[in-house]
Each structure stands twice: as structure tokens, then as C-alpha cells.
Amino acid sequence: MTKPRKPSQPLLGDVDAPIRSKARRRRDPAQPHLLLDPMPARIDPCLALLKPRPPKGPQWTFEVKWDGYRLAVHIEQSRVRILTRGGHDWTHRFPAIKQAAAWLPVGTAILDGEAVVLDEQGRSDFGLLQQSLGGRGGKMSSDAIFMAFDLLYFDGHDLRNSELEMRRHLLEELVPAGGQGDIRLSEEIEADGDALLRLACEHDLEGIIAKDRDSTYRSGRLGDWLKIKCIQSDGFAIVGYEKSTASFGSIGRLLLAARKGDQLVYVGGVGTGFNERSANELRKQMDKRIIGKSAVDTGRKQNAVFVRPDLVAEIEYRAWTHDGKLRHASYKGLREAADQLAVYEFDDIR
């Protein structure tokens, strides 16, 4: 059985709110009188477009922005699959989420959501998620939970052409509000966007997500979903590091790059946020990837070691300089290199 956990949303909502609907009874999608849609093997996710301020208008609904790994949970007749947004099978890494999915009262389904680990205040923490996964290398997490925020396929029916409001209604029947298991509902919050953003920032959350309740599910970053952040946090490719005998892992500063079209461009470095464990893990991974010449133009660097740009670091930062460099950057963790979509693209805001 799944073990009880901390409330998923103690800061922005009433965790004791009554369940809004009963779970559906399991229905056999093989019944011959039903017209069934083939279940997609994989769906490219709908991605949120970064905006500086929340949108206005009655068509927008809001949720907390979770800081974890974007996943799709595929519930099939004989198995459960958990896929990253890049299409990699991570079922083995989240056994508790897999078991919780198998217990849901549905024959077939595809849930869209985020795997997170919550801190003592109920906030998602990417660093804690990385610790629970034991760093890189395919280890399992027993602490991660899945925050479900969309339902793309349900009992033999493809829901992508249905409006968000209808998809959410079905999702809330399947994953009721207020649950404390390993799969929970990312609840909609009825509030003014500006007021909600202020509240989220006061409680040190990453930000909020706005969604057009009338929109269908469209893969890509098309503006149906928006993200508004309190503090910027994105993935950047590691292109090298500067040595320092006084720092953990002898890493004085990581050298970082972002995407600009089909190219990687240098965006500066980060020298804070490491602890002994994360620095040693980083150094071990980088030393396997040393190359003779930098993959991007970093300018003159003394005592620098360059690496293949296939490691992605999650970096928290406050702003950009006029020449396109990160300001007040801090290292949060190492993302999986296989998911190259995690690398920041300048087109997000420029």
C-alpha cells in the first residue's frame, strides 16, 4: 500500500476540502459496442510559455508550478509505463507511482503531470527529488509523488481534442482532490493571477501556471499554457568548469550554455549552490566527458576544463545581464542529459 504523505498544497488551499466526486468504476474498454481510439504510444507534451505577468480574463485558470520532472503515466491493459517528456522510459525509477497508477479505477489512461518530492512545508524541491533518485544512473525514488494536471486518454478515448475544462472534470473523477497517495491532483486555484503570484512568491514557490480553460491539448509551446515565475529556474548545458582547490570537488565555477536556434551559446557560469555530495557527483560525470576544445566560445578562461555539452544543470537565477549572461546564479541539481529539451532556449522570452 502507498504510505500517507504530507499535504501537497498546504500553502495555497484547504487540504481538508471535501472530495468533489466519486471515483469511477472500472470499465472494460474492450466492449464491442464502444467506438475506441487507438492509444498513442507517446504524446509530445504541451509546454508552458514563459511570461513576466499573469494573464487576465475569465478563460484563464491557475495552478501551482511544480519543480520536478515532467512525466506521462500510461495505464494500459497489462502494464503501466512512465515516460519522460523526451520519450525515455523511467517506469523503473518510480515504483510507487507505477503501483498507484495500477490501482486507479480505469482500464486505460494517459495522465500528464510532474514527479516531485515535497519539503516540510509542502513545496516541491528539485534538489530533494535528485537526492531521492540517488543522482544519475537510473536509481529508484521511493519519495517522489506524481502531481497529475491533465488527462489525455481515458478508457479507450483520445481526449486531446476536448477542451481543458472537460479533461479536468474527468481527471478529478479519476484522481479526486485532497488525496494523499503517490498520485495526487494538481488542483486548480480560483484567484486573481496577480494576487496568486504574490502569494506564491511570499511562500518561496517557483511560480504559477496559467491555462486557457477552452483550449484543446496541443503539443509544443503555443501559448495555451503560460508559466509565470517568482525566481527564474531553467536547465543549461554544462560546457566545462574552472578548477579551484578551495571548493567542493575542486569545482570553482561551472561554465554554462543555452540554446539559440540550432546553436549553443555561452551564458556565463555558476559557482554557488554545491555541497560536497553534488560537487563530487558532478566532477565524476564531467571527468568522463573531457574534450580538448570548448564546444562554445567562452572567451579567455584560465585553468578551465572543457566537457562535451551533454550534461544539463538546473540553475536558479535572478536576471540576465545586457550581454546575455546569467546574474546571481545558483546550482540546484543535475538533470538527465538524455532529455535535451530541458536546455533553456532564448526564444522563451526574447
From TrEMBL:
Residues covered by the ATP-dependent DNA ligase family profile domain: 137-229
Keywords: Ligase
GO MF, any single term: DNA ligase (ATP) activity
Disordered, as annotated region: 1-35
CDD domains the record matches: Adenylation_DNA_ligase_LigD_LigC (cd07906), OBF_DNA_ligase_LigD (cd07971)
Gene3D superfamilies per UniProt: 3.30.1490.70, DNA ligase/mRNA capping enzyme, Nucleic acid-binding proteins
Pfam family, one: DNA_ligase_A_M
Protein name: DNA ligase (ATP)
Species in which this protein is naturally found: Rhizobium leguminosarum bv. trifolii WSM2297
